Every structure is written in structure tokens, then in C-alpha cells.
Amino acid sequence: MSQAKTSPVTAVRAAPAGRRLHPLPVRIMHWINAAVMLIMITSGWGIYDDDPIIRGFVFGSFWRLGDWAAWSLNWHFAGMWFLAINGLIYLIYGIVSGRFRERLLPIRPAEVVQTVVETLHFKIAHEDLTVYNAVQKLLYIIVILAGISQVVTGVAIWKPIQFSGLVSLLGGFQSARVLHFIGMAVIVGFVAVHVALALLVPKTLWAMLQGGPRVKPSTRVQRGVKS
Amino acid sequence: MAVLRLLWLCVALVPITAPADAQSTTPGGMPPPPGMSLAESTAMRFPQPVRVGDLIHKDVLRPVASQQVLGHVRAVVRAGDGTIKIVMSFGGFLGIDTRQIAVPVDAMVLVGQDMEVVAFTPKQLAGFPTFTASGTTPVPQDTIIRVGLAKPSH
Amino acid sequence: MRSPFRPDNVPDAAVLDNHRPLIRSLERRGLIRGGLSLGALVMLTGCDVKRPASVQAALRAISRMNDEVQALLFDPNHLAPTYPSSMILRPPKFNAYYDVMDVKPVNGETWRLELSGLIADKRPWTVRDLQAMPQSSMVIKHICVEGWSYIGGWTGVPLRIFLERVGADLRAQYVAFKTADDYPSSIDMATALHPQTLLAIKYGGETLADPFGYPVRLRMATKLGYKNPKWITALEVTNTYPGGFWEKKGFPWFAGI
Fold first, then answer.
1. Which residues are CB-contacts of C45 (< 8 A; sequence separation ≥ 6)?
2. How many domains does chain A have?
3. Domains of chain B
4. What is the ipTM of this complex?
5. Which domains does chain C have, with CATH numbers?
6. Which of A217, B151, C40, C154 has CB atoms 3.0–4.6 Å from C219's, for a disulfide?
């Protein structure tokens, strides 16, 4: 943050090669989140199976983390701390560093439509990893909101009496459960698309491991110094 | 890449799961032992008083962990032989081809807000004749009848 | 595309359906009446290859930490929402670690509530003694750890009033219960003193029925269902962690909601 006081030009000179697309903290938080999400989703399925929300549908033992409900629950209640704390730091980092504004905004509806049309024509533009297309932006925002929503509905299910106000806001204990389930479905849907695209364009996967291309200094000057 | 290793550990742990039956030492909603009459089996299930009107619309489930919905309670009738039967919707898909069958109340149990058919498999129920009201009398909504209990199935 | 690993002739799943009553009766004989099996042995040890000991130890440690967080989140003055008595589910939902056929009714005439631990007056209690105590009623949601819930109406002696009457040490940490169905349980003193914690003797205005814990069971508005032992036979006030039936198998102890 000390660099913020120097002029933009010096800041660029101080880091001539520019910042990585995915700075180290982002990569660490991404992979912690990936692991914890996997734990939360599969242990959640273990808890779900004890009293299915969609009658007639259970996930089955292959998909569950925890050999029976108590251990699924223990995984879930252990993972929640990592998910919430990692997620909170990520949100603070994304806002303070300007990453969210830089990468995810603005989203123009026309661009979303255009990208969808292009994708349907199998024109997946991923030459420039440093710029997210409108659909990407939208999906990232949706999944971040779904993550926040999972924590809120999760707290409601965990402590429906202590936070009875929150639960009645969500329409009662059973609707909070359903909302928690829908949030999971949204995240799983995102993960499916996200992983599929990462495998289709492997350099995106590599970028999340090694940092990716350096962001052009000029773009940073344009956007102002936030290093 | 400790983080990656953790990720792989998680992936590796996912399939390491087993049946979730450790939770109950007796599974819920088991059929009557062979040779036992339905009435006798209900007597073992601590039949509880319930208002007939409260049974209408209840989901009727299969006693399995997935809680598959077999149908819904539509009416409660007294058959010619004096036994009480639950008239439930059954079969079909999205209401198409759905018909009504009459299942002896002693073949069913209450599990909280729902009912379960414990004495017949879905296949056996499929062989039940379609319910016709003739020869039966509807049981008034305010009548209290007794229905056996079961714990949730896992 | 068809997987090369899939056999061409798949056995008809209906074979399971056809023989289901038989399979179930076999399972029943094997599991319930049969006693010890390899599976039961695995359950007894509480740990097996499916759940590595180190993982289990780590999860238990976090669960204990969560117990402390839960105790901090517990507000002794916060009341659980209550509902009109027209919403009471009659009869309530039965649940136990066994099915209802294995319920062993308790004889209310000979039943006694034994008291032990940090209690001044340890004279045993009869059903009539409990009935003579001040009663309180509440229509609250019963929430099971499995996810289901229902609204139930309970009447009984507030545990706080009971503990005060017998001269229990209210600064002790735990209140522990023993039951006729061998389902030991224990709670923290703060929850024991909560106004919506009852030694319940009635449901929906009627004497508690056999499968629901006659003559007395615990009902707390602020804890999960499995923390509410039925057919209570003994109560102890103690500073030694007493644990409980499900807690031993892995479920969290505090289980506040």
C-alpha cells in the first residue's frame, strides 16, 4: 500500500514486468476454496441423504464424504470455518485490491448476449486470459453471491433458534434448508462449467497455479495504481 | 504444492464411504414378520390416535432412505368387513394414469407428517384393484382411528 | 456411449423387489436379533478403515471447539419461537436408535426418578411428585439433526424449577440423564436453566404416550432432537463430562440450535 503514495509512473517502474494475472494470494485462496468447497458439497450430500429434500432422490454412498451422517456433519462443521474465513479474506482482498472492479465490472447485458451467441457458435474467445468476457463475469459474480448465500443460509440451519429472526426472514427452517440446497446446486453447476472450461483451455488452469501472464503495465496505469 | 496435495486428498477421500446405516441399529418401516397378520403387526407398532381429517393429503412414502413418494391419502373408508382402509392415489406420472387404491390402514404407519406403506412393496400395490366406493362407507373427518408408528427409514 | 465395463445382461432390479420382504426379514434377524456381526464389531470400535483414526481425531477436535463456540452463541434469554396449539402434530414423530417395535414401555406406578451428584435432596421422585410441581407448556419446533422438523406441544416441569427444588448446584457444568432405553445423554447447565427446557410429562395436553417417553422425557426448544432423552430414570448434576449415546458415535455434544 505504501506505493500508492508514489506517482503512477514510479509504481509501474517499480514493477516493470507488471503484476501476475492471479497474484499469489488469489491462487492460494482459490485452491483452499476449491478443496473446502469439495468437502462442503460432498459432506453436505451425506447430511442431505438422511432426510432428502427432493423426495425419491438421494446421492448414494459413493458421493458422500463421511461414512455416515455424523461424520458428514463433522466434516461439514469443520469445513465451514475454512470456507467462511477464506471466503471473507477473499472478499476483503477482492474489494480492497480492486480486483473485483477490475475483473468483474462492468457487465453490459448486450455483451452477455453477444458472448452467449458466440459461445453457441463455438467461438470461445480465450486468447486473452487477462480479460474476462461478460458471461464469465456474470458467472463469477453469481457464484460469489451463491457462496455468501450459502454461509447465510448455513448459519440459519445451524442455529435456527439463536438466529430465529434470520430464519423467519428466509421463510422458516425448512425453506432455509431448501435455499441452502439450491445454493449448493448453483455452485455445483458453476463448478461443472468452470472445470470443463479450464480443461478445454488448459492455460487457464496453469495460470491459476503459476500466476498466468503479467498484466500489462499500461492497463494498470489506465486503471490507476492499486498495487 | 501442499494445497494441491490437500485437494487430491479430498478427491481420494470422497469414494471412501460406506452405507449410512450406522445411525440406526434397527431400520425403520420394516414389513411385518412372515406369518404375522396386519392387525398383529400394527399392535406391535404402538398404534396412536389420529384424526381422520389429519390423514387426508398426507404423502404416502415407500419405507426407504430416499423417501420415494408412492401417492397421497385421498380418503379413509370402512370396508364391508369392518376394516379401515386408506384410499390413496397411486401410480402414473404427473397425475396421468394415476388411479386410486385402497390399502388396509394396518399395512401402513405414521412417520411424522407422512404415512408409509410397510406391508406391501410398490409392485404388490400395483396389483391392487382400482378403488370403487361401492360396499365401503367413508369415515367422517372427526373420527379418531389408531395408526401404527415407525421411525424414519435409513 | 456404453461403457465397456458394463455387462451385456444386467440382472433385473425387480429381483430385489420380489424378494424384499425376505431380504428385510433376513436383515432383521441378522441385525437385530443376531447380535454381534463383523459390522457391529466395526461399529463398536467406532473407527475403521473407512474413517482413518487421524481424520477422526481431527474432526472430533474441531467438533469440541465448535461445542465451545456454540456455548458462546447460546443466549440464555433468547426464547425460541412458539406456535399456536392448532399446529401441533398429533401424534408426534417417533424416532430412536431402534424402531418402534422395540420400545419397552415403562410402568409409571413403579417408576422412580433417581437423583445423584451435586444435589442436596436426593430422594427419588414419583410420577405424582412431578405432576404436583408447577407446570409449563410450550408449542415449539422439534428439529432433528437429520433435517426434518415438526411442531410439538409439550407440558411439564421446567428443569430450572426442578433443579432449584432439589437443591442442585446450579454452578455445576452438566446435567446428565439415564434412561430406560439405555440412551445416556447430557446437557450444559445454561441450557438446563433455559425457560424452554422441560421435564415433559404431557404432549398435546395428554399424558405422554409410551413411544414418546412416558412417564418423563426432556424437551428443550434450543437443542437438536437427539439431545432430548425419553423414559428418563436418573438425573445427575456433575462437573465431569458425561457424554451421550450419539456423542460417543460421533455427533456433536452441544448440539444447540
1. none
2. 1
3. 50-147 (2.30.30.240)
4. 0.83
5. 11-44 (no CATH), 61-249 (3.90.420.10)
6. C154
